[in-house]
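User: structure tokens for this one?
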Amino acid sequence: MPSVLFLYGEEGYLINWAVESLLKRYVNPALVSLDYVKFQDEGESLAEILDACNTFSMMSERRIVWASEFPALRSSNAKGFTAADLELAEAYLKEPNQGTLLVFSTINPEGKSELVKLLKSRAECYEFSQLDYSSLSGFISKRFTAAGVPADRELVKLIIDQSGYFNKETEYRIFNLVNDIEKMIAYSYGGQITEEAVSQVLNGDMDTFIFNLLDAVSGGQKDRAFGLLYNILSSGRDVFGIVSMLVNQFELMLEVAEFKEEGKNLPQIAEIMKGSEFRIKKAMGYTEKFTVNKLRSVLSQLYEVDRNIKSGLLEPELALEILIGRI
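Assistant:
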């Protein structure tokens, strides 16, 4: 094992998992407070990090020093990081303390950062980017198996689809997925994971939530729609963000519906609107379930809900409940 690692990529959960695995491998559990140091504050300097590296471990195989989201990794002109600091880093990388494992990590590395360039050329690097379908499927299955709750292949596929993990520009990550899986396991009460558990528990990304809500509302499944709403609200999502997404979606659907009335097809609409073809295609599907007049009516109600929430006339949750009841 090398003495300096650089872990980076959007899947922060996997970065944390990697460091935890290193802790189990090298640090005596009774001496974690002495042989493991984590730096994660903006004000910490490179000199402090390297000083910690030059302290020898007590009785562990190796001491671990973790610099998580160090500012100079995320910015090419990080405050307080100087040319002298870069020279310090370069000197340490030439002769690192073999008794210490230094780990730098960040979710969003800045390609122009001199420290990032140095680490990519001198340290052992591992990228933790979005999982592919096969890896994600295996990850989900293993989580359920470890909990003693079986989930078949079709259910795993449903979870992946409804999570929106592979949606373009999604912010749904493994952190979110793990939280949702734990809630599904709790919801199952030790039995089989069901589609109902997935529907009631899975938050997914905001795009997926909007599409699932539209499926429920357009299909006359008001109970499911309310369940999706309560679930997304309980996850701590911003109410104004939910209303804004609904407004954007219904505005998109109305615009698409009006173009369809003019006889335009998907490629033509996508070319005119210059938007995400994925979203436009989804919107076209929903325009079959709402008339143009209905879409205008819902949009008018959404604008009213937004005003009522912002003015304090209605509680946010109540305003959204009333809206879903009317659609």
